[in-house]
Amino acid sequence: MRSYLAPGLLVAALCLSGCTGKHAPPAPPPPPISIVGSDDGRLEESLFKGDQAVLSNQDIERILAARITLADRHRLAVLRLNQWNVWYRDVADIETQNSQQFLRALSAIPQFTQVRPIPALLVPEKRTIPYLREAAARFQADLLLIYGAHAQVFQRDRLIGTDEVMADCSVQAVLLDVRTGIVLHASEAAETISAKKSPGDLNFAQTVARTEAAATGKALLKVAGSVVDFVRASEK
Question: Cβ(193)–Cβ(227) under 8 Å?
Fold first, then answer.
């Protein structure tokens, strides 16, 4: 004989079976404070643990919060990272003039009592920021201006003319505070110059080298002007 449950008993049985089943899993805990960040929701620390092996969150916070004044920075060292091989006397003279004009432009800052290039003997084999900073410290420089030049040469006989060349030169520079290792200023300048082969050139390669050197000199003066403007603005 079949037995049937009254509707009320059926509902009660279902409730009892639900009560004796598994409970819903608890809510997940809130994420750690390093992921949540500050009270306003901004992230304050790295989300990747591997970053700590390079630079800790505490060090990054100190770096970003640092406020550096240039009032007591009076000695500037200058270093060119890449050196070009010069095989022609007139090109070497242009490179020398470029360096002298660059240093004179930087010396226009009254606050600088010394503006000197770092001697080649002090330039480290590994030209990374820590080693360059050490070299500048040994040279007793407060600031280090590191720059590099890159040139591209185009020869378009049909468009420009026979024995004619155009050089695009760009110069990048960073101003480093030797005490803290902070990059205070970065600048970049570009210059384009066209030139023809002169009767005194031994070959077209000499024309190209002379054009590169001339373009580099003009770009260097633009970079020097950017550094001068930055330092003068920081004095106000």
Answer: no
* The pLDDT value given to residue 10: 44
Laid out side by side, the sheet with 114-117 consists of 114-117, 75-80, 143-154, 164-177, 183-196
Q: How far apart are CA 66 and CA 143, in angstroms?
A: 16
Helix (H, G, I), strand (E, B) or coil at 155: coil
Helical residues (DSSP H) of 40-186, grouped into ranges: 57-65, 89-106, 129-138
166 pLDDT tier (thresholds 50, 70, 90): confident
Ranges 113-117, 118-122, 207-211: which has the least confidence: 207-211
- CA dihedral of 7, 13, 18, 20, whole degrees rounded to 10: 170
Strand duo 75-80 + 114-117: pairing: parallel
Quick one: what percent of the chain has pLDDT higher than 90? 43
Read off the tokens for 141: 């420089």
Distances in Å between the alpha carbon of 68 and those of 55, 100, 128, 143?
20, 29, 22, 12
Integer Cα distance of 128 and 131 in angstroms? 6
Q: Name the β-bridge partners of 164.
A: 196
- Position 95, amino acid: E
| Domain ranges within the chain, ordered by starting residue | 75-234
Is 75-234 a CATH 3.30.160.150 domain?
A: yes
- Under 8 Å between Cβ of 168 and 136: no
pLDDT band, very low/low/confident/very high, at 51 (cuts 50, 70, 90) = confident
Q: Is the pLDDT of residue 189 over 90?
A: yes
Best CA proximity match to 220, nearest among 74, 49, 105: 105
pTM of the model: 0.75
